Inverse folding.
């Protein structure tokens, strides 16, 4: 079973993705969604560019470069949030309204994505 990228529809409040069963029959699964505050930008619609503070910043970083600190606090390194595209909200699966069989496929999708991410991070740590 493969799981390509899913699509969210803010207006319809749905999440959809293509999948295929063991017989190779493809279908689109549409899951009911509900709005939630974006977890990446926390509802701001923007965030600091990860190249700027992706490894974390300390008070010492700001003390060593007051101009950097001023620019940082003024939002000069901010970019539009890549998760919500500046909308401040995302659509998440409404587990209470989803069909159990579709929810099981969604859970499998999330598990596969987490496994792929963990594998990628392990390769990066090994210098691959």
């Amino acid at each position: 079973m493969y799981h390509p990228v899913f699509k969210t529809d803010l207006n319809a409040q749905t999440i959809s993705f293509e999948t295929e069963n063991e017989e190779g029959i493809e279908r689109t699964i549409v899951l009911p969604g509900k709005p939630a505050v974006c977890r990446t930008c926390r509802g701001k619609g923007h965030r600091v560019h990860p190249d700027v503070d992706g490894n974390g910043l300390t008070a010492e970083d700001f003390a060593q470069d007051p101009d950097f600190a001023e620019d940082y606090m003024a939002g000069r390194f901010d970019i539009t949030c890549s998760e919500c595209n500046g909308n401040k909200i995302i659509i998440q699966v409404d587990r209470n309204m989803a069909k159990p069989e579709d929810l099981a496929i969604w859970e499998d999708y999330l598990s596969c994505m987490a496994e792929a991410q963990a594998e990628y991070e392990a390769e990066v740590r090994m210098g691959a």
